[in-house]
Write a structure and sequence with these properties.
The complex is a heterodimer of chains A (337) and B (73).
Chain A lengths: L2 E2 L7 E10 L3 E4 H7 L5 H8 L3 E4 L6 H15 L9 E5 L10 H9 L6 E4 L5 H14 L5 E8 L17 E11 L4 E9 L7 E2 L11 H5 L6 E2 L2 H22 L9 E4 L4 H11 L20 H12 L6 E8 L3 E8 L3
Helix pairs in contact in A: 3-4, 7-8
Chain B lengths: L2 H10 L16 H15 L16 H13 L1
Helix pairs in contact in B: 1-2, 1-3
The chains are: A alpha+beta (337), B mainly alpha (73).
Chain lengths: 337, 73
Amino acid sequence: MKVLRPADFGRGVRIRGMGTALPERRVTNADLIAMGCPLSEEEILKLTGVRERRWVGDDEATSDLAARAARAAVSDAGAELGAVERLIVATVSPDYSSPSAACVAHAHLELGETPAHDITASCSGFVYALEVAARCVLTGQAPVLAVAADVRSRFVDVTDRSTAPLFGDGAAAALVDEGPVGEGLLAIALLADGTGARSVYVPAGGSREPASARTVAEGKHTIRMEAGPKVYLKAVEGMLGTAEALLESEGLGWDDIAMLVPHQPNRRILDRLARLAKIDPAKVVIDLEDKGNMSAASVGVALHGALRERARPGDRVLIVAGGAGYTAGAALLRVGE
Amino acid sequence: MDGRDAVRKIVADFTTPPANDDEPFEVESLVRIQIVEAVEDAFGLVVSADELTPERFATVAAIARFVAEKKGA
């Protein structure tokens, strides 16, 4: 696993501001059951830890959430949209198959000629976007908007017991900029294992099986999880392995971390992660009870809340995500004084 | 109580096990992972994703064999 360290280039990279966007519509477990989810409220809570999630309205899409989060991040940083030199949107649920959600959000944000593109890394999307943004900053392109946004509700089969209760919609954005050496982003690493490409996926609508009346009738436009228990264990192993590898590369251990901010796939996975890592559970940020699993956005939304509500100057914060593909990524941050 | 009895008791907390321990029991994936974790807790082991093949956790007998192999390893 190759680790990117801004200090190795004699430079610093920081998250200058963050913002999030959640849809207004709340979907409780009772609402989900009324739509056809074949589980009880008690089962959903016990199996996932989710009480409610936010779903977009009929007139909303991923780019709308991405643009809202981006505006909030720029405002939080005290910056201007006109200064942004690149827009990155990590998503697996773009408004259209083509073009990118980033280009649609770009129009909302009126970014002129600023380059814009998507990244597809499933639930690791925020970390992937952060890594690409950091590389941009290190080569003189700054600031960069790294956004993660997903609207998985459009692809949920509410009758599927394995996936229906999990997903919510949302977006998180970070304005990534130059900063003091030794603060902000200290180290970041990504990895992928394509043997899991069909572990959690939407079978139809791509070039392998284009959408047709038959694929829709067969529900192939919805999220499928082929081997749920294996994916569950793989998610924990991916996040834990990546996090520990990054810590080891920096000569650190779990005791050196003030907070672990993981992707939020479901509560049981996070409990297992904390148990296997032997980390103080109080250090693990849990932020899914009222949001669900927002795919790429989850870890960014959780990080935003943790930095605002819990972080103290000098804290080392480790973020880690793992998802379909398989993909994984981890980043070590140091909160500025 | 041997390993198979203990496994049968764990499975019974989640579903009615078949009378024959070699007969597969049907549960949804979110429940099957709970059974895996209950087996881990009961026998003090950690199951990896690669170890979690459909065959190993399909029947009471298969789980008991897996536990015995894992504990003996």
